[in-house]
Amino acid sequence: MVLHVHAASQSWALLVLLGATLLLAASFYFRGWLLLRELRLDAVPFSRACCFLFGLLLIWAALGSPIASYHHDLLIFHMVEHLLLMTFAPALLLLGEPMRVFWSAVPQSAQNSFGAAFHQPLLRRFASWLANPVLCWSVSAITLIGWHIPVLFTLGLRSDAWHASEQASFFVAGILFWWPVIRPWPSSSTAAQWPILLYLFLATLPCDILSGFLVFSDRVVYPVYFSAPRLFGLSALADQQCAGALMWTCVTIVYLLPAAILTTRLLAPRHSRETMWAQPDLQSPARAAAHKDR
Fold first, then answer.
1. Which is deepest, 14, 46, 285, 286, by most CB within 10 Å?
2. What is the pTM of this model?
């Protein structure tokens, strides 16, 4: 009983810490977005700000809602958690241009002190290398397949520390994966777009292989679920098949949507493409105000 109460208190402490962190991120983002709006910079529309806030909400849903409590009982809940952390939340966060908004919320003195660091050649080369599609695809594929190997999967279920590492790696891999597709600031918007279509197509292959294996396998891949409570009348095998089908459907739709948008842009007239891909130059609040006063 003492151990149970101690674990429950730790769980509540983590939930409070998670909620406070997400609220702090939301308030800091909202402050930066209001500063941009006051300066009449239309770099981050209201819809994109909503994307960022909804991305934070999905992080809470994955880590702090009942989904996080039931992932030990059903693989389908475990899969929902992974999809939220790796596929949905990172894409929504990057659509909100977080670096751009957070930078505007930084005090002017700090911008003057650290702003020059962003223009250092070494740092810019490192940022360019980090957003390389080959690297981002490789990290995403290795993370996805690696954590679904039965030994590592079971380890993540039985150890809170390993499970936290699994969740963090999924989120980081998701951020890296979506970065070349969305290209938020400070990434360049002038790079060729057509390779991203191939990038998105290749990204479906690891997901298709894994989800197809889970759906069509005639045995339970993760025996740890044999001892779990049978919720909603689902057997361990039916639960596995539903989880694989959910992953297959969600990933296909989510990757197809940006591919369709990019295809539409590539087929548009040249002047239309230049208008759609143009990104306003990032300015600090002080520079924008000085430009406005001229």
1. 285
2. 0.83
